[in-house]
Structure to design on (179 residues):
């Protein structure tokens, strides 16, 4: 998958024209549908996805991934998602027992990430963190939700490590061997 500077996307040999970001909200209202989506059981294995945009260049290696009961219908039980693989050579394991899209986004479960290099997302965050480097590791239980009324809520219980951090903007800087 590759996104070009003009916003267009290339999927293998197919290129799709980009949309004006200013029209995204209006276009979303026009495209609203009463159709619902259900992915009852999806398994992926031994796969590789390369994502390249003007802000990042990442490769996701999927050793094993399984998604169950993902639905856009209201009043459906939460789905689940398990994943073992790598993001730019850094190991990732997810065991999410809560994956729900409607009426609000809810994701929860065990998350393990080892040595993710922050430089991989530095261009994406350059407006708020012009200096961003180091490696992040975490191993714990995460719960994230986002809804119209409550906004964004996040709860994480576990270990968090940051080695070689170098981050900052015009208001602060932080540099150390590790946190």
């Amino acid at each position: 998958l590759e996104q070009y500077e003009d916003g267009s996307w290339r999927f293998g040999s197919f290129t799709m024209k980009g949309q004006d970001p200013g029209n995204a909200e209006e276009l979303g209202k026009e495209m609203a549908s009463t159709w619902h989506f259900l992915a009852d059981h999806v398994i992926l294995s031994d796969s590789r996805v390369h994502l390249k945009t003007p802000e990042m260049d990442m490769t996701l290696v999927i050793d094993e991934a399984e998604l169950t009961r993902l639905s856009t219908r209201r009043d459906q039980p939460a789905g689940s998602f398990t994943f073992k693989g790598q993001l730019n050579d850094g190991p990732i394991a997810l065991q999410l027992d809560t994956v729900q899209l409607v009426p609000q986004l809810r994701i929860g479960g065990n998350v393990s990430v080892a040595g993710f290099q922050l430089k991989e997302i530095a261009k994406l965050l350059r407006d708020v963190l012009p200096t961003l480097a180091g490696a992040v590791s975490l191993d714990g239980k995460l719960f994230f939700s986002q809804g119209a009324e409550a906004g964004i809520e996040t709860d994480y219980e576990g270990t968090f490590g940051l080695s070689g951090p170098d981050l900052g903007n015009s208001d602060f800087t932080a540099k150390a061997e590790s946190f």
